[in-house]
Specification:
Aldehyde Dehydrogenase, Chain A, domain 1, four-stranded parallel sheet, 15 helices
Length: 432
């Protein structure tokens, strides 16, 4: 299994020349995909899923080599977790492709239609964005998710993964190419930049001579900051995942305990992991100590305010910086706040508009939180780790967007489309 873009080619020609060629190939492929019938795209997705399952041993072997190199480079365990593929995670990638195939095709959907008094019939119709560039780090599953979502939404995609998962990405990409071949779609519809040269990122951010229509970064804060600063094309992204769980005075304790532990500790290295627990001061006598003890006994370091430190001597002092820190590790900051208004104010000041959850049995309090917290995803009585396109029924996602234009929250097939207006007339001309 090899990449369709050979490393030798990149070594023999100037990098920018090669990448400009990649862009032109993607642009041509996008025209074909935009017109491809749903059945043909679904055939490619299902064939790619079958190929992933057929090559699972090879994928896991290449991933083991990537993990070994990452450990030798001194990468932290939270990083290794994001990099790791298992049989279950590989099967989840394959299942994700099958689920994307089962989704309704957004391309060609009539979003709205109306008729004007002069007889013009106007409709707003979904169309693909064109060519999407994905720049990502340490998450090889993004290769399959992004490739599948772009394919279903009729977009060509150029994937630039991190050097730490280079071999894993190549193995997964080869399975996607097999799917395209099986459906007789252009192999260049899903391309993987076959070099670890960091200069490639700069060329992608320039747009490859107008070939790229949208950039989506998936990675750490430094990568996303660079993309947002340097990109000359639109960007779908979130900078940080500073996610909160607020335990209201009307919270069910056992429900709160389960949600807090899952939100923080299920997978600490993902963007939907909770980084701060807020506890209503009116319910602190009942809620604070049990929740802190559960976190500490679960292996989590707790950093808290004075009230939290008083609840358990094992709690470390929290600094001002802790409230604005995305740990991506088994560390959480805990603060007692004056009710739902205090929680909303804290999230407004320190949050990243990603995902925030309230635990309460009081419907009116929940509605206040859900209405006033200005985040891409808000939840009641559920873990922040549901911030995932697959969990939203989207099959998968390219990422979470926290911006206000075009896409917000999980970026799935619908979010990878734009629209055009189709106007049907019968000889109408506009009066002078």
């Amino acid at each position: 299994m090899t990449s369709s873009l050979a490393d030798t080619a990149f070594a023999q020609r100037p990098l920018k020349t090669d990448l400009l060629g990649v862009g032109q190939q993607a642009k041509a492929a996008a025209k074909t995909l935009a017109l491809a019938p749903t059945s043909q795209k679904n055939e490619a997705l299902r064939a790619a899923a079958s190929s992933l399952r057929a090559h699972i041993a090879e994928i896991l072997n290449t991933n083991a080599a990537d993990r070994k190199a990452a450990r030798e480079a001194g990468r932290p365990e939270s990083f290794i977790d994001r990099l790791t593929l298992t049989e279950a995670r590989t099967e989840a990638m394959a299942r994700g492709l099958d689920e994307i195939a089962a989704l309704p095709d957004p391309v060609g959907e009539v979003i709205a239609a109306w008729e004007r008094p002069n007889g013009l019939k106007i409709s707003r119709v979904r169309v693909p964005l064109g060519v999407i560039g994905i720049i990502y780090e340490s998450r090889p599953n993004v290769t399959a998710d992004a490739g599948g979502l772009c394919l279903k939404s009729g977009n060509a995609v150029i994937l630039r993964g991190g050097s730490e998962c280079f071999e894993s990405n190549r193995a997964i990409h080869a399975c996607l190419v097999k799917g395209l071949k099986a459906a007789e779609l252009p192999e260049t519809a899903i391309q993987l930049v076959a070099t670890t040269d960091r200069e490639a990122v700069g060329y992608l951010l320039e747009g490859l001579g107008g070939a790229i229509d949208v950039i989506v970064p998936r990675g750490g804060k430094s990568l996303v900051e660079r993309v947002q600063k340097e990109a000359r094309v639109p960007v779908f992204a979130h900078l940080e995942g500073i996610c909160h769980v607020y335990a209201d005075k009307a919270a069910d304790l056992e429900k709160a305990r389960a949600i807090v532990l899952n939100a923080k500790l299920r997978r600490t290295g993902i963007c939907g992991a909770a980084e701060t627990l807020l506890v209503d001061e009116a319910g602190a006598d009942r809620l604070l100590q049990p929740l802190v003890v559960a976190l500490i006994e679960g292996g989590c370091e707790v950093r808290g305010d004075a009230a939290t430190r008083a609840a358990d001597p094992r709690v470390l002092p929290a600094t001002e910086a802790d409230w604005a820190t995305e740990y991506l590790d088994a560390i959480i900051s805990v603060k007692v706040v004056p009710g739902v208004r205090g929680a909303i104010d804290h999230i407004s000041k320190y949050g990243s508009q990603h995902t925030d959850s309230i635990v309460t049995e009081a419907a009116d309090t929940a509605e206040t939180f859900l209405r006033e917290v200005d985040s891409a995803i808000v939840l009641q009585n559920a873990s922040t780790q549901f911030a995932d396109g697959g969990e939203f029924g989207m099959g998968a996602e390219i990422g979470i967007a926290t911006g206000r234009f075009h896409a917000r929250g999980p970026v799935g097939v619908e979010q990878l489309t734009t629209f055009k207006y189709v106007v049907r007339g019968n000889g109408q001309t506009r009066p002078t």
